[in-house]
Amino acid sequence: MNYVASDLKVVGTRPVRPDGVDKVTGRAVFAADTRAAGMLWGKIKRSPHAHARILSIDTSKAAALPGVKAVVTAADFPDIPSEEAFVGEGPMNFRDLALNVMARSKALYEGHAIAAVAATTQEIADRALELIDVQYEVLPFVIDVEAAMAPDAPILHDDLFTAGVNPKAEKPSNIAKVVTFKKGDVEAGFKDAEVVVEGRYTTQPVHQAYIEPHACLASYQPDGQVSIHASSQGHFMVRAYTAKLLGMDMANIRVNPAEIGGGFGGKTLIYLEPVAVALSKKAGRPVKIQMTREEVFRGSGPTSGATVEVKIGAKKDGTIVAAQQVLKYQAGAFPGSPIGPGCMCGFAMYDLPNVDVVGYDVVSNRPKVAAYRAPGAPITSFAVESAIDDLARKLGMDPLTLREKNAAKNGTKTHYGPVHQNIGFTAVLDAVKAHPHWKTPVKDGQGRGLAVGFWFNIGGESTATVHVNEDGSVTVATGSPDIGGSRASMGMMVAEVLGIDVARVKATVADTASIGFTHLTGGSRVTFATGMAATQAAEKVVDDLKKRAAATWEIPVEAVEWKDGKAYPAGSNAGAFEPLDLAALALKAARTGGPIVAEVSVNAQGAGAGFGAHICDVSVDKETGHVTIERYTAVQDVGRAIHPSYVEGQIQGGAAQGIGWALNEEYIYNAKGQMENPGFLDYRVPVASDVPMIEAVLVEVPNPRHPFGVRGVGEVPIVPPMAAIGNAIKSATGVRMPDLPMSPPKVRAALDAAG
Amino acid sequence: MPTVHFSSGSGCQAFTGGQSEVEVEATTFRRLVLELEQRFPGLGKQVEEGMAVAIDGEIFQDAYHAELKAGSEIYLIPKIAGG
Question: What is the 8-class DSSP label of residue A527?
Fold first, then answer.
């Protein structure tokens, strides 16, 4: 059923968030809060070298230390062959995953796990790590993406040959893959162009910087059953990856989802769980491992840093006739940067006849990258949206008008093939044009920037179960960890379908043994896909309730209608019966067929693409180079906001993270390839005083493929900020900042260079 | 018959010898995978395990039953995840 045009009573309201009280009172249980009787503390020894061959590991002294109950190295794990599979978030090579969890013959980055211990106290575990003697042959390393592509660069993997080139690569390379997308004839397009802009942009790897470090508690039972409590974006993903890396049956692993203190893509893979299980198996006791913040930075994935070259040609009236990009994305120590979406997203906002995009996936001696909100898109869009701004200046055209003129619409064929359908980009641009921020003149001394962004959004596999309890209250269980308010949105959609007060519905996240498979929480898929499953399960419950009412009244089920949480006879011909509400039907459930439960599993297709546009006003201190965000407005097509406060929160959070990416965040390496700022004092994420109140403007162009019109909302808002801020700095100072972060020293240097 | 386009970024052209599009007789995505595997050994597996498919503009991931019509335009693209 489609409820988009219905008179909705719950969807679109702002009830108190169900997880709020526990979180603000500190009672919410995160993975680091879990305890077990006899629990040991696990710790991981990490490589101090950016690139080194592991000659030997002597764990004997560590194992002999009183209080140490287990020590493991790669020798304690199966040697996994190269095998690509799409189980978690993107194609995963299980050999690479295994080698990232525990190095086997080479350490490929500073912080790479080499061995692990389990001991009765954290202090003993720390001392044991110091007693592990690792002999290395230190190798030349490479950090920078273009340096890694050079013919004489140190090679990370002797068996890595560039894919996607013709003729086939015959020598190992750090370039894992080359991808190209072409549409039309870009050379002819540039010949036809009357105005051309070009630029070369660089971005730095930035960490997802979730507040909660990775943590898990694993217990290996004598009968081979394993229980894991973990902080992750997908407990089914944790189960699958852990089983694969340990050679276990998934049925023997039960993963309990903990509350999660942020993920943003960085918890779509595993680092600790197989290690904790291996230690627990060896020690015969539960083992808990939690990363320090320093370990999070040194040992877990940021998103790629990159170099992006862009060239755009247009007619004098602003019609873009050709667009070209070369993208070089860092993958970290193993292949798998988001180069594919990077190549697809940069120009996806525009209707372009001729496009040529080439992308390189490049390994270097840094932590393996992980997903981060709209993986790949912010990087490519920083370059494209900066170039579009330059094009508007060169044409003497308003930057919004230029974007309107070239905007993708329904029916626009993208350069990567598919045709945009049911998109709301022009509605977003209309909302920008109408917004007071855009209409208000820029204050003296400030500059204003505009940038737009795109993300696909995804659907996928989800399961939801709706139970009507004996008192008529309702429980909805799903397999989706709640990162952005999905318990609220699930409860609201179910309440809407059942026609009851949302306070009567409790949403929970069930463990891997208690609910059907559910793909992880990522790609802005949960309210769309899991919401579809929950809605359908609630509809099945309504069908069941109608049958029970019909049986009670001894009338055909077709003569029963469900409205406002009650069964009614459908018209006078059906009979004169008092309505039966949910509580009355639940009370008699035993007499009308037993428990009232419905479970639905879906593989949701038709996720509606998302578009956003951000307006940013900045002032620049020309003495210090410090950029102050004076005003920020983020406009986005959200399809339909189930709980608008959460949707606004997603948009504000994405914009804030983009502000950090734009202005401050970067990994600083020393001459030995070691990170020098692995903590929040020196790796500077924005704090409250760095950002103004970000105004989120919700544009609602319903997605017809979802019963309530939902589109994913969590990815798009991180796409436009870097270019919006860069364009604002350009407006304020006349200087284009092509290199991120646009931190005070860089801004000051650029201002000095510009005279 | 439906036409399958192998965008240069999809990696499929390594299997097709550089051919950028083919017509297929398939009526579902599953049939398409089987036919591609038969005509270009290895491509069906590649498509099944690592690709999303856009059928007449709409992107499908993991959908055997997705229907192909005569004249359908099909693009194979990298699978899309998220953060």
Answer: I
Helix (H, G, I), strand (E, B) or coil at A208: coil
CB pair distance less than 8 Å for A340 and B54? no
The answer for residues whose C-beta is within 8 angstroms of residue A116's C-beta and 6 or more apart is A42, A43, A44, A45, A71, A72, A73, A102, A275, A278, A279, A289
CA atoms of A484 and A491, how far apart (whole Å): 14
* Residue range A404-434, pLDDT digits in tens: 999 999 999 999 988 999 999 999 999 999 9
Residue B37 within any structural domain of the chain: yes
Establish if A302 touches chain B: CB-CB under 8 angstroms: no
Mutate one of A416, A518, A530 to test the B interface: name it (highest B CB count within 10 A).
A416
Measured distance CA(A349)–CA(A662) in Å, rounded: 21
Task: Give B34-71 pLDDT, tens digit per residue.
Answer: 999 999 998 888 888 778 888 888 888 777 888 899 88
Q: A556 and A531: one domain? A: yes
Can you tell me the distance from the alpha carbon of A636 to that of A613, in angstroms, rounded to the nearest whole number?
A: 6
Q: Is A679 helix (H, G, I), strand (E, B) or coil?
A: coil
ipTM of predicted assembly, 2 dp: 0.90
- Cβ neighbours of B61 in A, within 8 Å: 458-460, 605
- Nearest CA among A240, A235, A244, A241 for reference residue A263: A235
Secondary structure (3-state) at B7: coil
Residue B40's domain spans which residues?
3-78
Answer whether A418 sits within 8 Å of B80, measured CB to CB.
Answer: no
Cβ-based contacts of B9 with chain A (< 8 Å): 179-181, 340, 343-344, 357, 359, 416
AA identity, residue A354: N
* Domain CATH for A503: 3.30.365.10
Residue A83, amino acid: E
Q: Which range of residues forms the domain containing residue A540?
A: 20-27+459-604
First and final CA of chain B: distance in angstroms? Answer: 37
Per-residue exposure over A693-718, b if at least 16 CB sit within 10 Å of its own CB, e if not: ebbbbbbbbbbebbbbbbbbbbbbbb
